[in-house]
Amino acid sequence: MSAPTAALPSLREDLRLFPAAPNRDGSPAWVIQDPARNRFFRIGWLEFELLSRWDAVNAAAAAASVAESTPLAATPEDACALAEFLGCNQLLEARTPQDTAYLGRLRKRVARGRLHWLLHHYLFFRIPLVQPARFLARTAPLLGFVFTPAFGIAIAAAGLAGIVLALRQWDAFMHTLAGSLSPEGLFGYLVALAIAKSLHELGHACTATRLGVRVGHMGLALVVLWPMLYTDTGESWKLASRHQRFAIAAAGIATELGVAALATLGWSLSPDGPVREALFFLATTSWVMTLTINASPFMRFDGYFLLADALDIPNLHERSFAMARACLRRSLLGLDAPDPEPVTPRMRTFLVGFAFVTWLWRLTVFLAIALAVYHFFFKLLGVVLFAVEIWWFLARPVAGELKVWWSERARIPGRHRAQLGLAALVVCGLVLVPWRTAIRAPAWAHAERQQVLHSPLPGRLTQPAPSGGAVQAGDALFVLEAPEIRNRAAVSRVTAGTLAEQLDRLQAVPEGEEKRAVLERELARELAEIDGDLAELARLEIRAPFAGDLLDVDPELAPGAWVKPAQPLGIVVAPGEWIVEAFVDEAALARARPGDTARFYPRGEEMAPLAGRVESIDHARVHQLPHPMLSAFHGGPVETAAESSRLAPRAALYRARIRLDAPPAARRVMLGTAVIHAAPSSLGGDAFRRAAGVLVRESGF
After folding, report:
1. Which of 59, 319, 321, 475 gives the lowest tally of CB atoms within 10 Å of its CB?
2. What CATH architecture does domain 440-448+568-699 belong to?
3. What average pLDDT does range 347-358 have in this prediction?
């Protein structure tokens, strides 16, 4: 309104007014419903009294009437502010050309181009599927027993019994969990998720219907193309009791926890088979999704509405964010920024802390979503959608707040301006100045000449290796036997002896030439088999390939132990030069050069770091680790693929070969960390090179 003496604008005739639960200070509150958009606006006592006198001559008259008949100190400015609020939310009638022009400007302000529309509907949109009001009205009375205390106690007891029984079968539970991590298991989890979430939404709908709230529709919501079921319970704001709204918000979690409890008990009592496997999928999905996602108050899921109703703070996120922004402007900029609403110091501390935790939580979640989108779509489209996610959810809110800071720069005190400038310089220095020189990489140190000893065949140990120490080339280290080969050789000897005797007897028989030829061929075959078996048995005597030290002998190798070919028996290490093999990340590869100095820090060893120099760097990534102890499956520092038998690193790593200046005092293979002193680089430069590399790689150039 232009002035308090101007006539009050007319309200829309289709608006509805409902009493709401009292505010936190005990004052009465009401809710305005806009039926055309199904939106709800909460107002306080002062606004209600002003609306009750909206037929007054002007804002000044309405405020004077409120001040005379109530204890409220209403002013014409309050009435003008209320009129502005109603106009901004399109709750007024458009009767004059000025009103029509205002609505036109408002439409242009919120109008979206095709790109903005596509972006909005890519990030989030709803697909209504059913209108369940009639179905719920018929079935809700039949489910009255679900809302009784006895039913809740029974479900809690069943869940407790199921958890206790599952803990007693913990090994079977973990075995089933490990076996479910497969494509077939993923399909089972998706089916269980669909069932659990359908029951979750029915819990919301039935509770809302029982409390007299109409469920307009139920359907599918796509959040960044991820499907989620939803139930329209927006009309719950008609309820005057926040406890009833709390019950509607908690119904989904309660339903899913009940399903998880019954499924856990069923899994614990069922025999092995498809039914038990289905119950396992349903139980784990319900427990995990409910406790980690639905119960979280940091996203707009059930946990958020539960916390908002418990605190009786509608729009908790927006109000806490506004409080945190005001706190930041006061503390960082020194501005006289008032709180957006009057609250107690304790509530202010909670709202600010809740806002910061929510921001950190959303930063993690949105980064994960952006990475998932990047990997889900193909090449360049994945990069574009990743950038969209980062801009829309992370960069855009920060840019909006920085824009406000820039507009208020003239009001910032000089001391705070100097502090901000210094902080900006420090940040720019950390990002742009090339101060990082060290490249840290997982590594292992070993002699340049070494050989791991294996048995060429499965065999039984008859003579174990010496306890360790120096060995000479050709020394017998392990002697094994293969009873099957030995027995086969013995049988071949007996057969060869029999054939030789038969040949001797046929020497005096003139007509036995043909039979002698057959026996000679059979004898030659048996002798060849004997020679082959003896050669195989000779291979089971494992000798030192060169002079050196025998290390890492398995202490469990005792006489009589069976040995597999893939089982390492020990390692022979030649004295002299020692090498460190470091596995450098792809992002730091461009900074490392042959000739760079390096240090190796052994893990778990009380010794000084070992100095050396980079000798060579591979141009192809490592496809398989050279030793099992480097894999995280065996306690090493390198994350490998899920198949433990194939030691393939998950990340793109490149081998850098470092020659040590002197061999270590402990002449054994060691794990550790290599620090290469490479060319200096900046954080910004590394980020730019990495982004450029991704663009080049994913665009197919």
Report:
1. 475
2. Beta Barrel (2.40)
3. 94
Over range 413-442, report the average pLDDT: 87
Neighbours of 113 (CB within 10 A): 8
Question: What is the band of 526 on the pLDDT scale with cuts at 50, 70, 90?
Answer: confident
pLDDT at site 617: 93
Q: What radius of gyration, in Å, describes the C-alpha atoms of the chain?
A: 39
Please give the distance of CA 145 from its chain centroid, rounded to a whole number: 39
Please give the torsion angle defined by the CA atoms of residues 191, 193, 194 and 198, in that order, rounded to the nearest 10 degrees: 140
What is the DSSP pairing of strand 476-481 with strand 39-44?
Answer: unpaired
- Sole residue written with tokens 């709390």: 246
Q: In whole angstroms, give the CA distance from residue 582 to residue 617.
A: 9
- Residue 132 token pair: 């369940």
* 194, two tokens: 């669909």
pLDDT for 121: 59
Structure tokens, 322: 């506004």
CA distance 109 to 87: 14
Annotated domain spans of the chain: 16-110, 125-306, 313-412, 440-448+568-699, 450-563
* Residues in Cβ contact with 277 at an 8 Å cutoff, skipping those fewer than 6 apart: 176, 188
Whether residue 598 contacts residue 612, with contact meaning beta carbons closer than 8 Å, is answered with yes
Closest C-alpha to 324, from 307, 341, 310: 341
Tokens of 542: 């494992």
Q: Do 29 and 20 contact (CB within 8 A), yes or no?
A: yes
d(CA 69, CA 60): 14
pLDDT over 70 (residue 36) = yes
Q: Are the CB atoms for 40 and 237 separated by under 8 Å?
A: yes
pLDDT band at 120 (very low <50, low <70, confident <90, very high): low
pLDDT at 701: 47
User: Using CA atoms, how far apart are residues 590 and 597, in angstroms rounded to an integer?
Assistant: 16
Nearest-CA neighbor of 627 among 439, 440, 446? 446
Return the closest-CA partner of residue 217 out of 204, 655, 227, 225: 204
Q: Please, which residues have CB within 8 angstroms of residue 391's CB and are 6 or more apart in sequence? A: none
For the record, the structure tokens of 329 come out as: 């402007």
**606 three-state secondary structure:** coil
Residues 541 and 342: their CA atoms lie apart, in Å, by: 87
Find the helix or strand (DSSP H, E) in which 262 lies: helix 242-269
